């Protein structure tokens, strides 16, 4: 018995008859064994199969080819994202008839638009170039840890509100948004992202100290050492970014089983590595690419969803489209904005006001779903290209070397340039201020 015949044996006779009819050979074929023989005769004979193939709708041919090139698995969401429709029906095929896979590619744009239109209003799009700022902010955070200036909650290992404010006050450009009335980890982006990334990357220990890798990177700023930490964050980081979608509920409910955060994070990072560098990518185009490239990921490890949007479970049901936007889309936004933009790997274009493309009113809430609702565009820079495996080495966009100070015979340090926050912290740990831009070494 052929492999195809053995597979067809698992189907009942009525199902087999439908396939016999599609092949145009339905008359007088009544027994199951005969129906299996008819299907095999048509699909295992090269010329007959070719005639069947030629009768297929072009979209159906593309669907069968797509499944063939993905180990026989047909991903309907990915196919619809690329071709805009499903085929009339999939059919078996032979390798020599399969059409070549059309590789979907993101183009991006060279420059950001000035505004975005939403509900008859035009909102300005802000641009944040992060490469130098993000790398400096991470060094500042590590310097604060080294000096014992930060404290964490014993319950969840998140920075205390006072420590969040300390990190915030030492950032080069502050947060992406204006400082809120109440500064905590739940109301800011960059300070929280720095802390969660450093912990997940193994730069900071559970005891609130720099790890050997963290101390070595603070001292050397070696890109390859940081690459190892970045990969560890991708593959092992345990913090679940879903918790940053504040209007998403049911995460801790009885019956909820979530997939490991790393399994989702790896898919997002892999999809980003397929994007062009130095081009602005629109967020919805990236969502579409994630589906087409088959980097879509599961969030819940159950056959049903236990999550709901907004404060009321009875109004929080999400259909497939809203589930993808709220649960998966905002999860992706958090990865890009809170981590990659914060450490300087991607530049972002965003709306800073209370803004969201997700209609929250249907879920009976006036709140934004997350701090990342306003993300519209991202651009992979030199640092990001290196971390994502798109460049063999790292060349800073701005030369790192510059004269900072002079030291005279009396061990007085005179600054000749403005220091970055991490450099200021290092100097203050070694010398005493005795005048404007003058410090004394003992």
Calculate Rg over CA atoms. Answer: 28 Å
Strand portion: 5-15%
Low-confidence stretches: none
Count every beta strand, where a strand is a DSSP E run of 2 or more residues: 12
Q: What order do the strands of the largest sheet run in, or round the barrel if closed?
A: 3-7-8-5
Rounded average pLDDT: 86
Number of helices: 16
Distance between the termini: 89 Å
- Secondary structure: helix percent: 25-40%
Structural class: alpha+beta
Q: Outline, from the CA principal axes?
A: elongated
Largest sheet: 4 strands, antiparallel
**SSE topology string:** HHHHHHEEEHHHHHEHEHEHEEHEEHEE
Describe the model:
- Helix 9 (190-200) packs across helix 11 (223-236) and helix 11 (223-236) packs across helix 12.
- A hairpin with a 2-residue loop joins strand 11 and strand 12 (438-441).
- 39% of the residues lie in helices and 10% in strands.
- The longest helix is centred in the C-terminal third of the chain and has 21 residues, at 320-340.
- The protein is built from 16 helices and twelve strands.
């Amino acid at each position: 018995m052929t492999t195809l015949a053995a597979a067809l044996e698992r189907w009942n006779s009525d199902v087999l008859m439908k396939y016999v009819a599609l092949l145009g050979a339905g008359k007088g074929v009544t027994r199951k064994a005969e129906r299996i023989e008819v299907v095999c005769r048509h699909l295992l004979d090269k010329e007959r199969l070719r005639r069947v193939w030629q009768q297929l709708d072009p979209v159906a041919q593309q669907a069968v080819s797509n499944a063939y090139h993905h180990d026989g698995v047909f991903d309907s969401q990915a196919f619809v994202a690329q071709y805009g429709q499903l085929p009339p029906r999939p059919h078996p095929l032979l390798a020599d008839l399969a059409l070549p896979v059309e590789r979907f590619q993101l183009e991006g744009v060279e420059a950001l638009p000035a505004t975005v239109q939403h509900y008859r209003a035009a909102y300005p799009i802000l641009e944040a170039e992060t490469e130098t700022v993000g790398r400096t902010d991470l060094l500042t955070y590590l310097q604060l840890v080294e000096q014992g200036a930060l404290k964490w909650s014993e319950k969840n290992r998140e920075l205390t509100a006072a420590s969040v404010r300390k990190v915030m006050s030492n950032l080069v450009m502050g947060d992406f948004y204006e400082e809120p009335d109440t500064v905590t980890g739940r109301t800011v982006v960059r300070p929280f992202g720095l802390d969660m990334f450093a912990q997940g990357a193994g730069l900071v220990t559970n005891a609130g100290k720099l790890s050997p890798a963290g101390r070595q990177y603070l001292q050397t700023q070696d890109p390859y050492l940081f690459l190892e930490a970045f990969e560890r964050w991708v593959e092992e980081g345990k913090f679940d970014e879903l918790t940053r979608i504040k209007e998403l509920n049911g995460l801790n409910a009885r019956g909820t089983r979530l997939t490991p955060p790393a399994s989702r994070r790896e898919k997002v990072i892999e999809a980003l590595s397929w994007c062009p560098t130095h081009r602005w990518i629109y967020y919805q185009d990236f969502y579409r690419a994630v589906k087409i490239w088959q980097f879509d990921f599961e969030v819940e490890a159950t056959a049903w969803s236990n999550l709901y949007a907004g404060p009321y479970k009875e109004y929080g049901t999400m259909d497939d489209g809203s589930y993808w936007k709220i649960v998966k889309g905002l999860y992706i936004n958090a990865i890009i904005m809170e981590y990659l933009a914060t450490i300087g790997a991607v530049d972002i274009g965003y709306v800073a006001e209370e803004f969201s493309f997700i209609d929250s009113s249907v879920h009976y809430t006036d709140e934004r779903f997350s701090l990342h609702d306003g993300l519209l565009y991202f651009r992979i820079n030199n640092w990001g290209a290196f971390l994502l495996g798109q460049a063999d080495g790292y060349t800073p966009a701005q030369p790192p070397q510059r004269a900072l100070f002079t030291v005279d015979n009396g061990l007085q340090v005179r600054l000749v340039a403005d220091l970055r926050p991490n450099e200021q912290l290092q100097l203050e740990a070694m010398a005493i201020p005795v005048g404007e831009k003058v410090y004394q070494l003992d």
